[in-house]
């Protein structure tokens, strides 16, 4: 049984969930950067989380290692993020019960974001063998995570939760740009999967392959095609 291209589903799930959270981080559309983001819980669980993980499993089935790794990992990120917002998981309650200072909570959040910054940078490096659109997506996502990490570490150092509001806002705008690139790539994949599309969108191809290792024979082989 043939499996359809799961890329647009994974990209769309990532884009929509990222867009909603980034609007809160940026403080636009009438929301504040300090407003509760619990509205994201359902999206993080079912669309950003479950749908992306399913897309990742289908990418495994069609042999796309990059897509499988990306969708499964970021789907797990959204599920992990949702646990912070669901009281029954006890994440916030554990800090409250221990009367943990805000600086400790910020430090824990910063380490969480730092780990995702590192992983996303690695995905950016790997994306240089896919398309320009995807490479820009992971570049912007790396910047988003890096700014959020800096804001959390900075707020901890100063002991002021609102001291890096502008950094959060900038991260939010980079997140919105990331979501736009993901939606663009998703639409390009949707149109490309149709036998007679109304129009097509260019995603850009890198003219060179970057090969690490002593073998020169592998450098002459054609680049791996991306289905997105």
TrEMBL record:
Pfam family, one: Gpr1_Fun34_YaaH
Topology with respect to the bilayer: Multi-pass membrane protein
Assigned GO CC terms: plasma membrane
Location within or outside the cell: Membrane
Annotated TM spans: 40-62, 74-98, 104-125, 132-151, 171-191
Lineage: superkingdom: Eukaryota
Keywords, in A-Z order: Membrane, Transmembrane, Transmembrane helix
Main location: membrane
One example GO MF annotation: acetate transmembrane transporter activity
Family affiliation: Belongs to the acetate uptake transporter (AceTr) (TC 2.A.96) family.
Entry protein name: GPR1/FUN34/yaaH family protein
Source organism of this protein record: Adiantum capillus-veneris
